[in-house]
Structure formats: C-alpha cells, structure tokens
TrEMBL record:
It is found in: Cytoplasm, Cytoskeleton, Cilium basal body; Cytoplasm, Cytosol; Nucleus. Residues 2-101 form the Fibronectin type-III domain. This is Fibronectin type III and ankyrin repeat domains 1. It comes from Homo sapiens. Interacts with COPS5; regulates the phosphorylation of JUN and the transcriptional activity of AP-1. Interacts with RYBP; may prevent the ubiquitin-mediated proteasomal degradation of FANK1. Keywords: ANK repeat, Cell projection, Cytoplasm, Cytoskeleton, Nucleus, Repeat, Ubl conjugation. Through the activation of JUN and AP-1-mediated transcription, may regulate apoptosis. InterPro entries: FN3_dom, FN3_sf, Ig-like_fold. One of its GO terms (cellular component) is cytosol. SMART domains: FN3. SUPFAM superfamilies: Fibronectin type III (SSF49265).
Length: 132
C-alpha cells in the first residue's frame, strides 16, 4: 500500500531549460525482492490551460530531470506513487519557474551588458557573459 499522500517532489537544480526533481519515500518504499514488488513513481506535469495532467516520467528511479522547457516559465508537477498491487496516491503540486536564459546579478543579461563589458574592457564580466 502506498504511503498516505506522498510529499511533493523536491526541486533540485533549475536552469532556463530544465528542472531537476527528486523524491524519497524513505524506508516505506525500499526496493526488496523482484521489481514487480517495488513502488513505481510517475511525475505528472499540469497543463494549465486544460487543467489536466500529462505523465512525463514513469519508473523506479527517485530522480528525474525535466528538459526542453521554456525560460522564465512556471511549471507545476506532482508525484504519483503506485504500490505493487496497483493502488496509487498523488502528492500535492509543486510549482517551479525556470530561470532566464542568462542571468547576471539578479537580472537577465542583455546586449547592453555585453556592450558595456567590451566598452570598459571588463574581461572578467565578458568571460562570464560568454560562458552563460
């Protein structure tokens, strides 16, 4: 039997195009015996316009990186835990926003930052902008 209401996925590293999610049900979902006796996990993403959910991951891992996302966009995910007997529980939603494609000191980098770095010959800033 799955635990009552699992916790939402924990947010790990977030970039402008990906969000890392992980979960751990501690000892309640230990992997013992054959795989068909393990708990199965699904990550579902909310479609905000349709108010429906799409499965973006299903398996036995306790981590998933959602890729191919849009910068500066809010995404909502929930965890579905399915017991070996087929019973399932859903976590509350977790909301996560992707970052801008390039950030500098709390603001998105623009062509003006690049121009300024070149104009004042700020090599360190120029390297940071180019690496971003």
């Amino acid at each position: 039997m799955p635990p009552s209401k699992p916790h939402p996925p924990v947010v790990g590293k977030v970039t402008h195009h990906s969000i890392e999610l992980y979960w751990d049900l501690e000892k309640k979902a230990k992997r013992q015996g054959p795989q068909e006796q393990w708990f199965r996990f699904s990550i579902e993403e909310e479609d905000p316009k349709m108010h429906t959910y799409g499965i973006i991951y299903t398996g036995y891992a306790t981590k998933h990186v959602v890729e191919g996302l849009e910068p500066r966009t809010l995404y909502r995910f929930r965890l579905k835990v399915t017991s070996p007997s087929g019973e399932c529980e859903y976590s509350p939603l977790v909301s996560v926003s992707t970052t801008s494609s390039i950030w500098l000191g709390g603001e998105p980098i623009s062509s003006e930052h690049l121009h300024r770095a070149v104009s004042v010959n700020d090599e360190d800033l120029l390297v940071r902008i180019l690496q971003g």
